[in-house]
Amino acid sequence: MAGLSCEPANGVGFKLLRPGSSVPLATTLLANAIAWRQGGDVAVITPALQGGFATSVVARLALGPCGRHNNGPYTVYWEGNDRDEAQAIIAGLDLPADAPAAVVCAALRAIPRNGPMRATLSWVENQVHACGRANFTRAEIEAVIARQVSLRRQHGGGASHQLTAMTVQQAKNREFEGVVVIWPYQVGGDAEHKRRLLYNAITRAKRWCNVIVQSQNILAAAPFA
Protein backbone atom coordinates (compact mmCIF):
# COMPACT_ATOMS: atom_id res chain seq x y z
CA MET A 1 0.00 0.00 0.00
CA ALA A 2 3.00 2.31 0.27
CA GLY A 3 2.66 3.18 -3.41
CA LEU A 4 -0.63 4.94 -2.68
CA SER A 5 0.72 7.21 0.02
CA CYS A 6 1.38 9.91 -2.58
CA GLU A 7 -0.58 11.16 -5.55
CA PRO A 8 -0.72 8.48 -8.28
CA ALA A 9 1.24 9.45 -11.38
CA ASN A 10 -0.01 9.14 -14.93
CA GLY A 11 1.76 6.48 -16.91
CA VAL A 12 1.28 3.64 -19.35
CA GLY A 13 -2.24 2.34 -18.84
CA PHE A 14 -3.08 4.73 -15.99
CA LYS A 15 -4.52 8.25 -16.05
CA LEU A 16 -5.70 10.48 -13.23
CA LEU A 17 -8.05 12.73 -15.19
CA ARG A 18 -8.75 16.37 -14.44
CA PRO A 19 -11.55 16.76 -11.90
CA GLY A 20 -15.06 16.25 -13.20
CA SER A 21 -16.57 18.77 -10.80
CA SER A 22 -19.93 18.72 -12.58
CA VAL A 23 -21.95 15.75 -13.74
CA PRO A 24 -21.80 16.84 -17.43
CA LEU A 25 -18.00 17.21 -17.33
CA ALA A 26 -17.49 13.89 -15.55
CA THR A 27 -19.84 12.25 -18.05
CA THR A 28 -17.75 13.59 -20.94
CA LEU A 29 -14.57 12.22 -19.35
CA LEU A 30 -16.24 8.83 -18.92
CA ALA A 31 -17.58 8.84 -22.49
CA ASN A 32 -14.13 9.63 -23.86
CA ALA A 33 -12.54 6.84 -21.83
CA ILE A 34 -15.07 4.33 -23.16
CA ALA A 35 -14.76 5.57 -26.75
CA TRP A 36 -10.99 5.33 -26.73
CA ARG A 37 -10.82 1.84 -25.29
CA GLN A 38 -9.35 -0.83 -27.54
CA GLY A 39 -11.95 -3.54 -27.16
CA GLY A 40 -12.76 -5.62 -24.12
CA ASP A 41 -15.04 -5.04 -21.19
CA VAL A 42 -15.05 -1.85 -19.13
CA ALA A 43 -16.09 -1.51 -15.50
CA VAL A 44 -17.06 1.77 -13.88
CA ILE A 45 -16.16 1.39 -10.22
CA THR A 46 -16.98 3.73 -7.36
CA PRO A 47 -16.14 3.48 -3.66
CA ALA A 48 -19.42 5.06 -2.58
CA LEU A 49 -22.92 5.65 -3.94
CA GLN A 50 -23.78 8.31 -1.35
CA GLY A 51 -24.51 11.69 -2.88
CA GLY A 52 -25.49 10.15 -6.20
CA PHE A 53 -22.53 11.52 -8.19
CA ALA A 54 -21.50 8.22 -9.80
CA THR A 55 -25.08 7.15 -10.51
CA SER A 56 -25.89 10.53 -12.05
CA VAL A 57 -22.84 10.35 -14.32
CA VAL A 58 -23.72 6.85 -15.52
CA ALA A 59 -27.36 7.82 -16.08
CA ARG A 60 -26.42 10.92 -18.11
CA LEU A 61 -24.06 8.84 -20.24
CA ALA A 62 -27.07 7.06 -21.78
CA LEU A 63 -28.88 10.26 -22.78
CA GLY A 64 -26.81 11.32 -25.78
CA PRO A 65 -23.40 12.28 -27.21
CA CYS A 66 -21.02 14.03 -24.82
CA GLY A 67 -18.44 16.79 -25.26
CA ARG A 68 -16.82 18.14 -28.38
CA HIS A 69 -15.95 14.65 -29.58
CA ASN A 70 -19.63 13.62 -29.39
CA ASN A 71 -18.78 10.27 -27.84
CA GLY A 72 -21.74 8.21 -26.72
CA PRO A 73 -24.39 7.60 -25.78
CA TYR A 74 -23.44 4.47 -23.85
CA THR A 75 -25.61 2.28 -21.67
CA VAL A 76 -23.76 1.10 -18.59
CA TYR A 77 -25.49 -1.60 -16.56
CA TRP A 78 -25.38 -1.26 -12.78
CA GLU A 79 -24.79 -4.53 -11.02
CA GLY A 80 -27.21 -5.29 -8.25
CA ASN A 81 -26.66 -7.49 -5.24
CA ASP A 82 -27.45 -11.20 -5.06
CA ARG A 83 -31.02 -10.56 -4.00
CA ASP A 84 -31.69 -8.13 -6.85
CA GLU A 85 -30.39 -10.55 -9.49
CA ALA A 86 -32.25 -13.52 -8.03
CA GLN A 87 -35.51 -11.57 -7.87
CA ALA A 88 -35.11 -10.47 -11.48
CA ILE A 89 -34.78 -14.10 -12.57
CA ILE A 90 -37.61 -15.32 -10.33
CA ALA A 91 -39.93 -12.64 -11.71
CA GLY A 92 -39.88 -14.43 -15.06
CA LEU A 93 -40.54 -17.86 -13.59
CA ASP A 94 -44.00 -19.14 -14.62
CA LEU A 95 -44.49 -21.76 -11.95
CA PRO A 96 -47.33 -22.59 -9.52
CA ALA A 97 -46.83 -23.14 -5.80
CA ASP A 98 -46.40 -26.88 -6.37
CA ALA A 99 -45.64 -28.57 -9.69
CA PRO A 100 -44.50 -31.85 -11.26
CA ALA A 101 -40.87 -32.14 -12.28
CA ALA A 102 -41.69 -31.88 -15.99
CA VAL A 103 -43.51 -28.58 -15.46
CA VAL A 104 -40.64 -27.23 -13.37
CA CYS A 105 -38.06 -28.15 -16.03
CA ALA A 106 -40.18 -26.57 -18.76
CA ALA A 107 -40.54 -23.37 -16.75
CA LEU A 108 -36.79 -23.19 -16.15
CA ARG A 109 -36.01 -23.81 -19.82
CA ALA A 110 -38.33 -20.94 -20.79
CA ILE A 111 -36.05 -18.46 -19.02
CA PRO A 112 -32.81 -17.32 -20.74
CA ARG A 113 -30.13 -19.85 -19.89
CA ASN A 114 -27.62 -17.95 -17.80
CA GLY A 115 -25.30 -19.65 -15.31
CA PRO A 116 -27.66 -19.77 -12.32
CA MET A 117 -30.53 -21.06 -14.46
CA ARG A 118 -28.43 -23.84 -15.99
CA ALA A 119 -27.26 -24.84 -12.51
CA THR A 120 -30.83 -24.81 -11.16
CA LEU A 121 -32.09 -26.95 -14.03
CA SER A 122 -29.21 -29.36 -13.49
CA TRP A 123 -30.09 -29.57 -9.79
CA VAL A 124 -33.73 -30.40 -10.57
CA GLU A 125 -32.76 -33.06 -13.11
CA ASN A 126 -30.35 -34.60 -10.62
CA GLN A 127 -33.06 -34.67 -7.96
CA VAL A 128 -35.36 -36.48 -10.39
CA HIS A 129 -32.85 -39.06 -11.61
CA ALA A 130 -30.81 -39.64 -8.45
CA CYS A 131 -33.46 -39.18 -5.76
CA GLY A 132 -36.68 -40.06 -7.56
CA ARG A 133 -38.28 -36.68 -6.91
CA ALA A 134 -41.58 -36.15 -8.72
CA ASN A 135 -42.72 -32.75 -7.43
CA PHE A 136 -41.14 -29.47 -6.39
CA THR A 137 -42.48 -26.36 -4.69
CA ARG A 138 -41.97 -22.90 -6.15
CA ALA A 139 -40.40 -21.75 -2.88
CA GLU A 140 -37.85 -24.55 -3.16
CA ILE A 141 -36.92 -23.59 -6.72
CA GLU A 142 -36.64 -19.92 -5.79
CA ALA A 143 -34.25 -20.84 -2.97
CA VAL A 144 -32.08 -22.87 -5.36
CA ILE A 145 -31.95 -19.98 -7.85
CA ALA A 146 -30.91 -17.57 -5.09
CA ARG A 147 -28.21 -19.97 -3.93
CA GLN A 148 -26.85 -20.42 -7.45
CA VAL A 149 -26.71 -16.64 -8.00
CA SER A 150 -24.75 -16.26 -4.78
CA LEU A 151 -22.35 -19.07 -5.69
CA ARG A 152 -21.66 -17.59 -9.12
CA ARG A 153 -20.81 -14.19 -7.63
CA GLN A 154 -18.55 -15.78 -5.03
CA HIS A 155 -16.57 -17.41 -7.83
CA GLY A 156 -16.18 -14.18 -9.78
CA GLY A 157 -19.03 -14.60 -12.23
CA GLY A 158 -20.85 -11.47 -13.31
CA ALA A 159 -22.96 -9.87 -15.95
CA SER A 160 -22.07 -10.47 -19.57
CA HIS A 161 -22.44 -6.79 -20.50
CA GLN A 162 -19.41 -5.03 -21.97
CA LEU A 163 -20.07 -1.92 -19.88
CA THR A 164 -20.93 -2.40 -16.22
CA ALA A 165 -20.94 -0.22 -13.11
CA MET A 166 -20.43 -1.40 -9.57
CA THR A 167 -19.04 -0.61 -6.15
CA VAL A 168 -15.52 -1.55 -5.09
CA GLN A 169 -17.03 -4.29 -2.93
CA GLN A 170 -18.82 -5.82 -5.92
CA ALA A 171 -15.63 -5.69 -7.99
CA LYS A 172 -13.56 -7.77 -5.56
CA ASN A 173 -11.76 -10.80 -7.02
CA ARG A 174 -12.65 -9.78 -10.58
CA GLU A 175 -10.74 -8.30 -13.52
CA PHE A 176 -11.70 -6.17 -16.51
CA GLU A 177 -9.81 -5.01 -19.58
CA GLY A 178 -10.43 -1.40 -18.61
CA VAL A 179 -11.58 0.36 -15.45
CA VAL A 180 -12.87 3.88 -14.85
CA VAL A 181 -12.91 4.83 -11.18
CA ILE A 182 -15.34 7.59 -10.20
CA TRP A 183 -14.26 9.05 -6.86
CA PRO A 184 -16.94 11.28 -5.24
CA TYR A 185 -16.85 13.58 -2.23
CA GLN A 186 -18.67 11.18 0.06
CA VAL A 187 -16.21 8.39 0.79
CA GLY A 188 -16.18 7.28 4.40
CA GLY A 189 -13.39 5.84 6.50
CA ASP A 190 -9.91 6.88 7.52
CA ALA A 191 -6.97 7.52 5.19
CA GLU A 192 -5.81 3.91 5.16
CA HIS A 193 -9.31 2.65 4.35
CA LYS A 194 -9.56 5.07 1.43
CA ARG A 195 -6.16 3.97 0.13
CA ARG A 196 -7.30 0.36 0.21
CA LEU A 197 -10.48 1.25 -1.66
CA LEU A 198 -8.51 3.04 -4.38
CA TYR A 199 -5.97 0.22 -4.59
CA ASN A 200 -8.71 -2.40 -4.89
CA ALA A 201 -10.47 -0.37 -7.59
CA ILE A 202 -7.52 0.35 -9.87
CA THR A 203 -6.06 -3.15 -9.60
CA ARG A 204 -9.21 -4.60 -11.16
CA ALA A 205 -7.86 -3.33 -14.50
CA LYS A 206 -5.89 -5.69 -16.74
CA ARG A 207 -4.88 -3.14 -19.39
CA TRP A 208 -5.87 0.40 -18.48
CA CYS A 209 -7.44 2.50 -15.75
CA ASN A 210 -8.69 6.09 -15.60
CA VAL A 211 -9.64 7.85 -12.37
CA ILE A 212 -12.18 10.68 -12.31
CA VAL A 213 -12.44 12.69 -9.09
CA GLN A 214 -15.38 14.94 -8.32
CA SER A 215 -13.30 17.92 -7.19
CA GLN A 216 -9.79 19.32 -7.22
CA ASN A 217 -9.95 19.46 -3.42
CA ILE A 218 -10.12 15.66 -3.27
CA LEU A 219 -6.58 15.46 -4.64
CA ALA A 220 -5.24 17.26 -1.56
CA ALA A 221 -6.31 14.49 0.82
CA ALA A 222 -6.10 10.71 1.14
CA PRO A 223 -5.96 8.54 -0.84
CA PHE A 224 -4.44 10.90 -3.41
CA ALA A 225 -2.09 12.89 -1.17
UniProtKB/TrEMBL annotation:
Domain UvrD-like helicase C-terminal stretches: 163-212
Pfam families the record matches: UvrD_C_2
InterPro entries assigned to the protein according to its UniProt record, in alphabetical order: P-loop_NTPase, UvrD-like_helicase_C
Protein name: UvrD-like helicase C-terminal domain-containing protein
